[in-house]
């Protein structure tokens, strides 16, 4: 059996295990180890398992060791800690409260404030699922209490939660950078304009939805006074400061992405204690949650690295590049096929699982066609962002349904999410058609 056939069988088994809800780390390690063992054992054409044990164990342990000791990986626990500490200190909630005070006089203003709050949370935490879960607890009950239609109240938060994938910092960008050996700083900055464009698109969806069906939102509330607006804006200054440290610090060349994360954690902790919104028990809970979340991500990342090494042994990637070259697909058609694959996988798999399965095959194709890897990273993350709210398995939708409970079942959220999906597809088309949207800022980063 040749290595390519073993690789195809490994992919098939991987999809079966993921469909059976086997934890992705265990599925990756198990399939990759078995595939590598078979390749090494059959290297001479005869099955000789005694020759495969040492080579397989060396591949598994060396790859996981090298990844865990990667300096770039150190920013993941820092950004996860930043999001947890900012939430405990009330910094993320202040963004929502500030937006709510300024927009309350608009019909649908609270829904718009929820999306802006999700954008603010995303600019700190870097996790879409955490954003949907946290803001779902804060925003959705308030909108339901005010009389918003459950479809609008939930879908706006589910869609807004996806901004955590694109607005820096982003855990998905970090993982993409590690596996493609691209600059994390450039990826972060490249996500700024597409993230803002998506946020503005979501606000436009809410305004158009309410204009066409005024019953989905309550009547206008009494506008807040100027003093209340100023006070609310003042309370949101920590979030703006943290975002400036991350984006301006990286864009201006003052910090690396890892240094920006470390400085932001220190600043956020100091602000929390100075404002007396963060206590030692709160800090302990934030650190504990960070350890749990980071451990899960590291295990998956190590398993992914082993899987990528096993796929490299199969020779599937060069064979795929050659097959595409012989098919003479235009870059536009190739990109269309890639987007279609990601959208289909996004209906059933989680973002990290999709990246692990696809990047070893997609990156050689992209490089062979002369496409920019930074721009392609933004396209991939945007596609993964779309997958988070795409039926039948939109991860953010299920997370939000679990948070809200019986008041908004999964079907209700999906009934309202298609409007936001339409805008996501428009933004995706713009990013694909005009790479400058992603690259205009990143090209200035060293």
From TrEMBL:
Keywords: Cell inner membrane, Cell membrane, Membrane, Transmembrane, Transmembrane helix, Transport. It comes from Roseibium alexandrii (strain DSM 17067 / NCIMB 14079 / DFL-11) (Labrenzia alexandrii). Residues 12-437 form the TRAP C4-dicarboxylate transport system permease DctM subunit domain. This is TRAP transporter large permease protein. It is a multi-pass membrane protein. The chain crosses the membrane at residues 6-39, 75-96, 108-136, 156-180, 187-211, 241-274, 295-321, 333-361, 373-393, 413-441. The lineage of its organism: Bacteria, Pseudomonadati, Pseudomonadota, Alphaproteobacteria, Hyphomicrobiales. It comes from the Bacteria. The complex comprises the extracytoplasmic solute receptor protein and the two transmembrane proteins. Its main location: membrane. GO terms for molecular function: transmembrane transporter activity. Belongs to the TRAP transporter large permease family. One of its GO terms (cellular component) is plasma membrane. It is found in: Cell inner membrane. InterPro entries: DctM, TRAP_DctM. Pfam families: DctM. Part of the tripartite ATP-independent periplasmic (TRAP) transport system.
